[in-house]
Known about the structure:
Number of helices of chain B: 13
Oligomer: heterodimer
CATH topology of the largest domain in chain B: Rossmann fold
Strand content of chain B: 15-25%
Radius of gyration of chain A: 19 Å
Mean pLDDT of chain B: 90
Amino acid sequence: xxxxxxxxxxxxxxxxxxxxxxxGLTLIFGIVKVVNFAHGxxxxxxxxxxxxxxxxxxxxPYATAAAVVPILFVFGxxxxxxxxQPLMHARDEHIQIFATVGLSTALMNLALLIFGADxxxxxxxxxxxxxxxxxxxxxxxxxxxxxxxxxxVTGLQLFLARTNTGRAIRATAQNxxxxxxMGINDRFIYxxxxxxxxxxxxxxxxxxxxxxxxxxxxGTYFVLxxxxxxxxxxxxxxxxxxxxxxxxxxxxxxxxxYIGSDLREAVVFGIFLVILILKPSGLFGTRxxxxxxxx
Amino acid sequence: MRxxxxxxxxxxxxxxxxxxxxxxxxxxxxxxSGQLALLGEESARGVExxxxxxxxxxxxxxxxxxxxxxxxxxxxxxxxxxxxxxAREGVKAIMGTYSSSRSIAASQVAELSGVPYFExxxxxxxxxxxxxxxxxxxxxxxxxxxxMSVQMIVDEIAPALDKDPSEVRVGIIHEDSSxxxxxxxxxxxxxEEAGLQIATVQGYPASTVDMSSxxxxxxxRDVDVVMQxxxxxxxxxxxxxxxxxxFKPAAIIGGxxxxxMLPTAExxxxxxxxxxxxxxxxxxxxxxAYAPGxxxxxxxxxxxxxxxxxxxxxxxxxxxxMAIFAAIDGAESFEPDAIVEAVxxxxxxxxxxxxxxxxxxxxxxxxxxxxxxxxQWQDGKLVTVYPAEAxxxxxxxxx
Lengths: 295, 399
C-alpha cells in the first residue's frame, strides 16, 4: 500500500512537471494555431539562462525567474514577429511548422556550440531535499513545481477570462476575421500570445533547472510528451493541459512499476490513442475554429 | 588484372593529387562536428599523438605519415568522407571512428575499395563479425564490458558480501537502444553462466525524465547489485532517484558513458556517487606499471593541447594506432594485403601497452586481448580497482 501511494505521489509530481511545460505550448497551439516544435528548445534556453544566472551571480534559482521570464517573453514575441508572421501568408500554412522545426535544430546546435555536449548543473539550494507527507516522500523542488503549475494555470485562466486583453486573445482565437472587424489588432495579439507562451515555459525552466541537469538536448526529452498532453487535454485548453499532464504522469508512473519500464511509453501512447478515438477533440476540447484560414 | 587495377588507381591518384609526395597518407575518420564531436575529437587526438611519435622516430617504412581528417558527422557523411579519403586523398588505411553506427557504415565503403579500416574505439558487437576482410578492431567491445562487470561481482563483490555468487541477486537496467540492450544481454548471459541470480532485466528510453518507478521496482526485488548501462542523463537520474528513495544496494556497477565523467559526479554529488563502480575503457588512474607509456602519453597530450585529456578515448585510440603503425612499418609495402598480413602478426602481451591490454587479432579480426577496466568513485575521483594488476586502489564494498 505504501508503495502504491508513493507511486501515485511520484506520478502527480511528474504530472506537475509536465503541466508547467505544456501550458505555454497549448496557449500557442490554441491561439496562434502554430505547432511550435521549438518549445522544448525554449525550455532549454530558459534552463541555461537559469544555470548562468544562478552560477554567475549566485542567486537562488527561483529568483532568476525575474529575469528569465521577461527574456523568454521577448524571445517568443520576436520569434512570432520575425519568423512566424512573415510566413502567415505563405501558400501552405505547414511552412510555419517547418520554420519552428528549423528554429529548434538551430537553437540546439547553437547550445552545443556554446556549452558543449556536457551537462550543466544548476546548484539546487536544497531543493532536492525530501519532504515527508504522511507515508510518502517527495522532493521539495517537485512540490514547488506542482504548486507553481496550479498557480500558473489559474492565473492564465483568470487573465484570459477577466481582462480585456485576455478577451481579445480569446476573440482572435475564436474568429480572427470577426476580431479584426471589432478593432482588435490580431498581429499584436499573436505576438503577445507567443510571448506569453514562451514566458510560461521560462517560468517553468527556472523551477526545473535545479532538479534536472541541463544539456542542449534536454528539450527533446520533454517536448514529445508535452505534445501528447496538449492534444489529450484539447488543443488550446489550459485546464485540459493541466489535467492531461496529471493523467500522463500517473499512467507513466503506474505502468513503469506494474507493467515494466520498457513498456511504459507503449502504455502512455496506447491510452493516448484510445482517448483520442473516443473523444477526438481531447478531454476539454471544443471544435477548433477554422477562422484563421480566412484572410 | 591486379596489376592493371593498381596502375589504374595510381593513374587516377596522380591525376587528382597532381604531384606525388614522399609522405604516406592515412585517414582519421571521426565525428568532428555535431552531437558526438566532443569525444570524437578526443579520440582523434590519440591518433594525432601517435602520428607525431611515429614521425619523430623515422616514420613508417621510411616515410612520414600525414593524417587526413574526415568528418563523420552522421552515417551518410561517414560514407561520403570515407569515399573522399580513399578516392581523392588516396589514404593507405582509415582509422576511426568512436561511433559504432558510423564505423559500420564507413567500413563497408573501405571494404569495397579494398582499403584497410582500423576501428580503435567503437564498442558495438556488430562492428566486427560481418565477415569484412579489411576491418580490424583494437578496442574492447560491449561483450568485454558485460564480461568484466560480471567478473567483478564474482571475484570481488560476492566475497566482500560473504556470499556465494549463486546467492547474489542482480538487477540489470539499461537504456533501450542497441548499445544498452547488447551490453545488458551480455551481462545477463555471463551472469547466468556464473550462476548469479538475475532478478530482473529492464530497459527504458534514454530520454526518460523519471526513473522513480524503476527504483521502487528494484527496491521491491531486494537486489544486491544493480548494473546499469546508460548515457549521462539517465545515469544522473538513476543515481539521484535511488539515493532519494533510500535505495542502497551493496553495489552499483555503471557501464561507460555517463558513469566515467566528472560532470556526472558533480551533478549527483560526490557523497552520493562514492563507492559506485564503473566498467569502461582504460582511464588515467590505472597503475602505470601495468600501462607503460601512459604517463608519457598524458605529458605529450598536455604539451600539445594545453589541457588534461578529457577522457580515456584518446589513450585507447593512441594505443591502437601505435600498434597498427608499428605493424605497417614492418610490412613489405603499403599494399592492402601487405598491411593486413603485417597486422595479423601483431602479438603484444597484456601489460605492455599504454592502455594495459594486449593486442592480438583473433576470430572476426577482433582484438582478443582487449579488456575493459573496473573503476570506482572514491573521494570524488574515479580510480581503477579491477583487475588487481591494473588497480591503484582497493575496491570498497559494503559498509
